[in-house]
């Protein structure tokens, strides 16, 4: 009799666990899909920065206003400034992109 009782308890436990597994699977399926991460530029930087590349670096669309360019530059520099632990390469590319889009003569430094 104890074997039959044990088998019954195991079957009941498996049924309860299966029920919770099905409920969890349904909850997972009802979650919104993860947002797709856009693909970045294939390859590296061009030897001479283009306007398209400058807009991509600043995260702006073509034809952005001067105020949008300045605010995007400021936001990125606050996040990536070398004095705050950011990368000098990224900071120089952000500065170069801003200079190009604002019509200033970019200052190229060898990295």
TrEMBL record:
InterPro entries: DnaJ_domain, J_dom_sf
Main localization category: mitochondrion
GO cellular component: PAM complex, Tim23 associated import motor
SMART domains xref list: DnaJ
Compartments where located: Mitochondrion inner membrane
Key words, A-Z: Membrane, Mitochondrion, Mitochondrion inner membrane, Signal, Transmembrane, Transmembrane helix
Single Gene Ontology MF annotation: ATPase activator activity
UniProt key word Transmembrane helix: yes
Signal peptide positions on this chain: 1-17
Superkingdom of origin: Eukaryota
Record membrane topology: Single-pass membrane protein
Residues of the J domain: 53-111
Record-stated family: Belongs to the TIM14 family.
Protein name, per record: J domain-containing protein
């Amino acid at each position: 009799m104890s074997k039959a009782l044990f088998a019954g308890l195991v079957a009941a436990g498996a049924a309860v666990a299966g029920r919770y597994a099905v409920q969890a699977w349904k909850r997972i399926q009802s979650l919104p899909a993860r947002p797709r991460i856009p693909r970045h530029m294939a390859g590296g930087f061009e030897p001479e920065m283009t306007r398209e590349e400058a807009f991509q670096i600043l995260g702006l669309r073509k034809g952005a206003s001067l105020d949008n360019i300045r605010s995007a530059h400021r936001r990125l520099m606050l996040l990536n400034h070398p004095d705050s632990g950011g990368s000098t390469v990224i900071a120089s590319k952000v500065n170069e992109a801003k200079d190009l889009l604002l019509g200033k003569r970019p200052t190229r430094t060898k990295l």
